[in-house]
């Protein structure tokens, strides 16, 4: 079997960004570059499959100028057999990248296409599902484990609060989470040998394609608004006094997002996520965002009738489209994306929208490709019906983008938009459903039972890092505080990888994105990928033994000292 692995050249995320003086983008001068970490994980997974006898050939492909040859030679050193560079001086949108990869796949006939779930610079997470849609193949998005069973590829994928296992018929497309495979260490002889290997160069014309016109326009790139300098407190007593003033022990938020009103005319279609027999809390936020763009909001609900009844009472919803068919019981992108795309066509909507959760991120890009539309991911601000703001570079920068397509497709960060309230119920209409694709099969879902709030909608999050020392210390110091404050528990990737807690608690670029009222960062350094998942929290409290830790520069309150002394003191004060 043959695998095609896409690799992208990206700036090193450990180096601070420099912005162009005219605000048009990131200044690349002198910035070190590297292979996209998510693509590197995908490549390592392919190499391991070859070593175990499941693959016979690995082809690495990159798209861009000849500087991408360095990335491809890194891929060859890691274990790729061949390297192909598709020449392009353009900065291509994910849909264009997917079309180039589609053309190459139709030329090379791989059994498996692997790529990172997202690139660490643009953070869009679109190319893989778009490519799967264009090829008509099943997809395994956000994969953390792969195995071959009975001529099918079993993919374990990361979902909110747990994992899901799917069986995919081959050929298939898989997008890699960093947890899929830690890349091996490269030795000098491997790098030297890779430099001698050829890199095949192709043009768009060679693949039967022409120049790609941009569907969206980048207007500005800027740094996020700075937080006020952190207040350093002397002890747990002073910290608790400050947090009481911030409203820590109140039942209601001190500040609430304002539900925007709009004079925009148009029709928006919102895809509703659900879990446990209820609509996901993010749906109310997605409807709130849709109301900024359209005066008619249609909600698509795929599931039991009780979900449609609940959806019909969300303020601002004009009507509900409902599908309750057995083969839609599990949210397979191969079945749901065509349904969403067909509903968008039939309704002639101006906007298709969903929350930027693993559910929405897996489905929307696939639907966008079926509709031949570029899309926007993780929108955090709507400036006008055609202007949007989204984070890039793990939240270290904000991009303002103009999208003038007749059909706009986007995912929105739930925490950035106010949730809608309730209204009198509107009409519910049944929707005709297509036959199942039959190329993917749901096997199981593993979501540990929760006795605390979920990360996605918790008012308070207590997050721990590797500085807590051990799993036992993590439980002993974090859990009592979380229980007292009725808080969700989060963790860094380092703490998860060290076995302190399950990966369903991970926060960051490779985990959950949260923005609670209060975020306690305990014993964690504050790496860029972790900051990407929590920087929009209203109040950030850093409790750390290292005052030079990066998290202290992003916090509102900093308490330096011994965690084993401070946390019991804080808990005792809360118990009074």
TrEMBL record:
SMART domains: ETF. The keyword Electron transport applies. PROSITE patterns: ETF_BETA. Gene3D superfamilies: HUPs, TPP-binding domain. Residues 23-211, 268-445 form the Electron transfer flavoprotein alpha/beta-subunit N-terminal domain. Keywords: Electron transport, FAD, Flavoprotein, Transport. GO terms for molecular function: electron transfer activity; flavin adenine dinucleotide binding. InterPro entries: DHS-like_NAD/FAD-binding_dom, ET-Flavoprotein_bsu_CS, ETF_a/b_N, ETF_a/FixB, ETF_alpha_N, ETF_asu_C, ETF_beta_N, Rossmann-like_a/b/a_fold. It comes from the Bacteria. One of its GO terms (biological process) is fatty acid beta-oxidation using acyl-CoA dehydrogenase. Its cofactor is AMP. It holds the Pfam family ETF_alpha. The electron transfer flavoprotein serves as a specific electron acceptor for other dehydrogenases. It transfers the electrons to the main respiratory chain via ETF-ubiquinone oxidoreductase (ETF dehydrogenase). Belongs to the ETF alpha-subunit/FixB family. Heterodimer of an alpha and a beta subunit. This is Electron transfer flavoprotein subunit alpha.
């Amino acid at each position: 079997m043959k695998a095609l692995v896409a690799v992208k050249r990206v700036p090193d995320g450990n180096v601070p960004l420099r912005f162009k003086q005219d605000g048009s983008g990131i200044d690349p001068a002198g910035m070190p570059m590297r292979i996209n970490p998510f693509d590197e994980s995908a490549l390592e997974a392919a190499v391991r499959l070859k070593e175990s006898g499941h693959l016979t050939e690995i082809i690495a492909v990159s798209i861009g100028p000849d500087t991408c040859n360095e990335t491809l030679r890194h891929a060859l050193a890691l274990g790729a057999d061949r390297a192909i560079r598709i020449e392009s001086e353009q900065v291509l949108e994910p849909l264009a990248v997917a079309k180039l990869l589609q053309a190459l796949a139709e030329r090379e006939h791989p059994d498996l296409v692997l790529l990172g779930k997202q690139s660490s610079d643009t953070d869009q997470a679109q190319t893989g599902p778009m490519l799967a849609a264009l090829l008509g193949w099943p997809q395994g998005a956000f994969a953390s484990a792969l195995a071959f069973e009975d001529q099918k590829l079993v993919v374990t994928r990361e979902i909110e609060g747990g994992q899901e296992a799917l069986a995919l018929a081959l050929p298939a497309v898989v997008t890699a989470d960093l947890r899929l495979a830690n890349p091996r260490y490269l030795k000098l002889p491997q790098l030297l040998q890779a430099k001698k290997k050829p890199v095949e160069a192709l043009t768009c014309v060679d693949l039967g394609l022409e120049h790609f016109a941009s569907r969206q326009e980048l207007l500005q790139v800027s740094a996020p608004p700075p937080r006020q300098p952190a207040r350093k407190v002397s002890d747990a007593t002073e910290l608790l006094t400050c947090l009481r003033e911030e409203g820590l022990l109140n039942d209601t938020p001190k500040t609430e997002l304002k539900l925007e009103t709009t004079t925009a005319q148009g029709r928006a279609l919102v895809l509703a996520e659900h879990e446990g027999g209820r609509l996901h809390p993010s749906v109310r936020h997605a409807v709130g965002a849709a109301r900024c763009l359209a005066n008619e909001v249609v909600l698509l609900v795929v599931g039991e009738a009780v979900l449609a009844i609940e959806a019909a009472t969300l303020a601002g919803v004009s009507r509900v489209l409902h599908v309750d068919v057995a083969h839609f019981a599990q949210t397979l992108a191969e079945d749901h994306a065509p349904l969403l795309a067909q509903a968008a066509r039939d309704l002639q909507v101006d906007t298709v929208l969903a929350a930027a959760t693993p559910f929405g991120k897996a489905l929307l890009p696939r639907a966008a490709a079926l509709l031949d539309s570029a899309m926007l991911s993780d929108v955090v601000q709507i400036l006008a019906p055609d202007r949007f703001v989204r984070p890039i570079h793990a939240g270290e920068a904000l991009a303002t983008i103009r999208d003038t397509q007749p059909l706009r497709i986007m995912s929105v960060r739930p925490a950035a938009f106010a949730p809608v309230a309730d209204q009198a119920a509107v009409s519910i209409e049944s929707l005709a459903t297509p036959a199942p694709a039959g190329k993917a099969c749901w096997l199981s879902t593993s979501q540990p039972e929760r006795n605390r709030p979920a990360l996605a909608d918790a008012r308070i999050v207590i997050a721990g890092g590797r500085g807590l020392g051990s799993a036992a210390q993590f439980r002993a110091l974090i859990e009592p505080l979380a229980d007292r404050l009725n808080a969700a528990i989060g963790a860094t990737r380092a703490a998860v990888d060290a076995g302190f807690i399950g990966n369903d608690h991970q926060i960051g670029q490779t985990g959950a994105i949260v923005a609670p009222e209060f975020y306690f960062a305990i014993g964690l350094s504050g790496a860029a990928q972790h900051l990407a998942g929590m920087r929009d929290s209203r109040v950030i409290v850093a409790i750390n033994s290292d005052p030079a830790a990066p998290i202290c520069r992003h916090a509102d309150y900093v308490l330096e000292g011994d965690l084993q002394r401070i946390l019991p003191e804080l808990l005792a004060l809360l118990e009074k």
